[in-house]
Amino acid sequence: MKKMQAPAFWYDAAQEKKDWRARLTARLLAPAGRVYAWAVRQRFDFYYPVPLARPVVCVGNLVTGGAGKTPVVLSLVGLLQDAGYNPHILTRGYGGTEPGPLQVSPGRDTAADVGDEALLLVESAPTWVSQNRPLGAQAAIDSGATLIIMDDGFQNPSIYKDAALLVIDGASGFGNGKPMPAGPLRENVADGLSRADAVVIIGEDKAGVAEKVAAIDPAMPVLRASVKPDAGNPPLFGKPVFGFAGIGRPEKFRDTLIAAGAMLEDWKSFPDHYAYGVDDLKDFIDAARKKNALVVTTAKDYVRVPEALRESVQKFTVSLVWQEPAAALRLIENCLQKSPL
């Protein structure tokens, strides 16, 4: 099933203010949003999380899609491996059909099976897909994991989290500050912060995230990082490019291409985790070929491009750069030392 894209007014305050239809829609959906946030909170009020034999580090967010969790997870894998841990990654496998628990195998599994994120994560560490998080975590432990990194799952109460990091995009912040479907929030900000051990702000804090977090919890640690293009990317400066993306906020990738110096001749946005078919991209690729332009997308999108078209598409990858990597590792290890296990 193909998802709808997030409404523009979730993140564009000016658009909501100018467009009476967007303003009315947000107001009409506000009661449903309050019920949604209440339901999420009830799960944690009445559910006892399962403690595991190995520590769990959860990387989550408060908005639906587009915060930058995957680069944070990949970076933490490297930091923890260097510190002597054997981390395994646990993900729900969103967009895939495999219920798990299943250890991801790149040669066997496709994005349709395990989701696009799992195929990226497994390049750095053993990765498990499981809709039942405790079962997936236990499978990882049985296979030798000394630490579990949960990719997403912050709103899932089934597992006790020894350390929980909330990833927030510095440009978009908490959007319009309303829970779904009136806004992008998965829960109220204060409720989420009450269960977090730290906030990770990605990029320049244009949305004033640090100030908003401090107003709610002045003691909350704030880590800062940025996402930088990888050195192995195709050179784009001054070259004609046809770009496309189906991620949480596709416009972020469009801005990345422009910042890399690409001459963006055409652009297409798709919903998050969109399952591309040949018909979705063939005409786009043919048009690019006529203009002698590169067709470029994200690493997440690339694994969802049909095999027949992949040789015509290039992926543009990014990595997370911590402002203080030692501080990130120290915070996690301090949380693990305080664990009741």
Overview of this protein structure:
The chain contains twelve helices and 13 strands. It is α/β, with parallel strands linked by helices. Among the domains are: 132 residues, Rossmann fold; 77 residues. The strands form two sheets. A nine-stranded mixed β-sheet has the order 3-4-2-5-1-6-7-8-13, with helices on both faces. The longest helix is centred in the first third of the chain and has 27 residues. It is globular and about 60 Å long. The mean pLDDT is 90.
Strand order of the largest sheet: 3-4-2-5-1-6-7-8-13
Strand pairing plus helix content: what structural class? alpha/beta
Radius of gyration: 20 Å
What's the CATH topology label of the domain at 56-86 and 146-228 and 320-337?
A: Rossmann fold
Shape: globular
**What is the terminal separation in angstroms?**
41 Å
Order of secondary-structure elements: HHEHEEHHEHEEHEHEEHEHEHEEH
The main β sheet shows up as: 9 strands, mixed
Number of strands: 13
CATH class term of the domain at 56-86 and 146-228 and 320-337: Alpha Beta
Helix content: 25-40%
Strand content: 15-25%
CATH architecture of the domain at 56-86 and 146-228 and 320-337: 3-Layer(aba) Sandwich
Mean pLDDT: 90
Determine the number of helices (DSSP H or I, runs of at least 4 residues).
12
Poorly predicted regions are: none
